[in-house]
Amino acid sequence: MSLLIAALCLVFAVFAQRRLDRELIDYSAFVPYGVAGTLFALAFGDIALEKALYPEEAGHPVLSRSLRSIGVVAISLALALVGCLNFGGNRFRLLGLVLWAGGLFVCLSYLYISERVTAFGRRLTGIFSSKPLSISRVGLVLGVITLVGAALRLYGLDAIPADIGWDLPYNYTDALSILRGEYRIFFPANQGREGLFFYLIALVARFATLSHFSIKLTSALVGIATIPALYLAGRKLFDTSVGLVAAALLAVNRWHIVLSRSGFRVIMLPLFTILLVYAAVRALRSRSPFDFALAGLTMGLGLYTYTAFLFAAVAVPAGLVLLSLIKRPPNWRSLVPLVALMLGVAVVVYAPLARFAIEHPDQYLRRIGLQVQLVGGGVPERPRVTLPLLLENVRTSLLMYHAYGDSNVRFNVPSARHFGFVSGVLLVLGLAYTLRRWRQGANVILLVFFISLIVPMTLAMLPREMPNVFRAAGTIGPALILSALPLLVLSRQLHKLGATYPTSDLVATLRLSSSDEAYEFILRTGRRGLLAVAPALIAGTLLAVEFRETRQFYFHEFVQVLPDKQNVSIAKEMARQIEAYGDLSSCYIKVWPHWFDGRALQVYLRRQYGAWNPEFDRFIPGQPPLSTITEGGLVIVHPDDTAGLEFIAQEFPRHATAVHVLPGGTPAFITVYVER
Predict the structure, then answer these.
(1) Both ends of the chain: CA-CA distance in Å?
(2) Domain locations along the chain
(3) What pTM does this model have?
(4) Is residue 50 within 8 Å of residue 441, measured between CB atoms?
(5) With the CA atoms of 613, 614, 620 and 622 taken in that order, what torsion angle do they form, in degrees rounded to the nearest 10?
């Protein structure tokens, strides 16, 4: 009966999603989705998948141990804060960095060693032992999942996406400044950005040339690292199976693949959100000062990734408050110094950036201030966001997984949903199941993270704006953990049904005979064995469907809409022509409104913006730049610039013209090779 109900829930959910895919907004599809979620929660809400948040062995008092550590911890954190005094002028400096990082290292090392002296000794002994390394079956499966995710994130990365866009040239310039020894805390250019991702770009560039490809490679590597991180979070919240299924769903998730291949710093947001979920739940379960300090470290570092991570940091204390209201934890007073330790470490890690924010609030808050001005009606042509419009934004935000998504062609097929068909269907069932069991285990923390990380997009949306793949990216990890749960509920039911059958109740006999001999092969199996492997077969089939859809979405549909047209970049093609010509000093580009990005062109040519500027805005007889051409040169003009082409023909009777076209035959630019 339970399997019939599960199948019925899936049928309703699949029907609803197919209706939404046929119509951009089909409100009648919400009814079968609601029926599917409600029925699933009622039928299977009594099945416990989550781990107990306060196991008995973790209930021992740790207050005295924390108090014994407070002296060393306080001194080391104070030393780290002293180091921040050396970070004036928006710069990390060696002395301050040694004190700041050293103080944090001493704090965490002391807590780790003091709690785990025996385990620490065993691990050191194990490192130098001659015992051969072995890989568990779980490790092997996770490795395969990660390899599949890596393939989707690395295949054709140099070519897709081809156009660097407006923002990545700033990433290039900032990473280049790091490589040249300018270690900024905050990067004020382009409305101001947190800088941890730029340091990772610079690190990758130590092993590869700094370029558009190395920037994309950095985000792809971060995206790949997020896959095992989600496994850890899923395993900590529930069990190994949930972790593996969630990791597999992430490996083939279309939204995350787009971000992983984009080269944008937002790819750090899902990773650090997932790590914070893992660290917070681990700390609450273990009651270990080291684990709470580790959660604080994760929280503090996350604030150097992307502005929306602030909502993940807020989700931790919000989740703790809700947990205390649901059920007071055992020895709850011991949690007070531990939470204080977590927040203290987070503050110390964030201190350099906090100092910059205090000293330069105009630069630090510029991006937020601009969005507040837009949303608040500070711009005359923009309507003010009222309560009805805010509620409309909430509805739009919740529909991004199933109905419609971002319309920006750089990051999505216009208005396509952010989740795949399978993960979207499973998300509804998993969310309904978790809401039914929100009081159990750490489910409330998972739900708080999921809801909190939708908020930044909802608050920042302009009236009638489509969902944004960046601002809500922190929800990817929590949402996929929720999506994994229905498959594990189904697995439990299949195993429960299998236990009612004998071990071997099916016999298959094969007889082969000839005139001389006869052979008989007997295969004994049972419905129990078949039902035992059924969950893996079902999960594998659904993941294969998701993989196929994602591959079609990214490498076929998405490529067709990528700028400038069908993933052909005008700036990149210009760079190829200039490189083929060879002499940059005699290459010039007559600018034209809304044509190409000069910053992008210079990144493709691996030049720092401003060091070489080939652009000019008009032709003047006898004036630079054309007057400086003594022998030959290359001039690039817009296809519609007929006056410019006529001027070049008069100025240089000896010239050759080539028209470069986009897919479909649309002229992109014209190169004119001139000689005196």
Answers:
(1) 88
(2) 45-120+137-484, 570-675
(3) 0.92
(4) yes
(5) 100
pLDDT digits 0-9 by tens, 340-385: 999 999 999 999 999 999 999 999 988 887 766 666 655 555 566 6
Asked if the model's pLDDT at residue 668 lies above 50, the reply is: yes
**Eight-state DSSP code of residue 629:** -
Answer whether the bond into residue 625 is a cis peptide, omega within 30°: yes
Give the orientation angle of helix 476-498 with respect to helix 421-436, to 10 degrees: 80
Sign (positive or negative) of CA dihedral 253, 256, 258, 263: negative
Token pair 């190829």 is found at 576
C-alpha distances out from residue 456 to 89, 194, 196, 467, 479, Å: 30, 16, 20, 11, 16
34: exposed, middle or buried (C-beta count within 10 Å: 0-12, 13-18, 19+)? Answer: middle
Nearest to 452 by CA among 318, 252, 347, 315: 315
CA R_g for the chain: 29
Name the nearest CA neighbour of 572 among 591, 554, 592, 596: 596
Count of other CB atoms within 10 angstroms of residue 68: 12
pLDDT greater than 60 at residue 60: no
Q: Cβ contacts of residue 317 below 8 Å, gap of 6+? A: 339, 343
136 by Cβ neighbours in 10 Å (0-12 / 13-18 / 19+) ranks as exposed
- Cα 565 to Cα 572: distance, rounded to the nearest angstrom: 12
Contact 74, 468 (CB under 8 A): no
Contact 624, 631 (CB under 8 A): no
**Total number of residues shown for the chain:** 676
Beta bridge partners of 657: 672
Averaged confidence pLDDT in the chain: 89
Burial class (CB in 10 A: 0-12, 13-18, 19+), 45: middle
* 362 CB burial (10 A radius; 0-12, 13-18, 19+): exposed
3-state secondary structure of 338: helix
Mean pLDDT across 570-576 = 95
Summarised one tens digit per residue, pLDDT across range 236-291 is 999 999 999 999 999 999 999 999 999 999 999 999 999 999 999 999 998 899 99
